[in-house]
Task: structure prediction
Amino acid sequence: INGLCGAAPFSSIMYISVNWFPLKEQLVVAGIIISCVNVGVAVPFILGPSLLPEPNATSTSLVRAIGLINDMAEGYNYNGSLRWYLVIQGACMVLCLVFTLIYFPSRPRYAPTATAVTARLDIKEGV
Result:
């Protein structure tokens, strides 16, 4: 399932690098974007546990994790910290989306390569 869902975002990386950057910079740009995606996936796993309180500091990590799941299932809200953590994370994503939709044009004013101005085929014709 991850492979099916990941095809569209990762194909857009090459689309952005071809349309926005010269040939010599395209691979570097693609590598930077992929690295940023991986950092964006890793940061919540590191930041999240430091922002939420532990359910029982004397138990082992597995017991604490199971206790966290049980407390979440019972509706315990950790004084609202879990809810606010998710709200803040979602708000940051929506803010980035809004700024991207407002500012980011589909193409640069001047094409960096010949492939940037080449007409694209419809995806239905390719399938």
Residues 120 and 126 are 11 Å apart (CA to CA). The chain has a mean pLDDT of 74.
